[in-house]
Design a protein that fits this description.
Length: about 120
């Protein structure tokens, strides 16, 4: 609660390698969106604006979709959609819903797998 109250989602550091990954993804012939969790419906109104601010300050202009808990991400899955996520349960749920899931561990592996689906 304190982390959220202090607005800490606004100030998180970028994951290592994300700038290069975004540069690569930006050049792919696909539409890209952000799908991020706000932990719960109760925290949605506090976390979503902080995450939007973070995206803006890092010049990440993709459409942002926020869900009240990671367990809701699968609702965005379609046969042509690919999710990259570092949580195995999100990937499992996404695949069960008919989408393509890439379990992110490091950018070299993730982008290599992504390339197999895109090209």
């Amino acid at each position: 609660d304190r982390f959220i109250a202090e607005g800490q989602f606004r100030n998180l550091k970028m994951m290592p390698g994300v700038i290069d990954a975004l540069a690569y993804i930006n050049n792919l012939p696909v539409s890209v969106e952000i799908l991020s969790s706000t932990a719960s419906q109760k925290r949605y109104d506090a976390i979503a604006p902080q995450k939007k601010y973070w995206l803006q300050t890092h010049n990440i202009g993709y459409k942002a979709n926020f869900v009240p808990g990671k367990q809701n991400k699968y609702k965005f899955a379609t046969p042509d959609s690919i999710i990259i996520d570092d949580t195995k349960s999100v990937i499992d749920d996404w695949k069960k819903a008919g989408g393509i899931g890439i379990w992110h561990k490091d950018w070299v592996s993730t982008l290599g797998i992504l390339t197999m689906y895109i090209k």
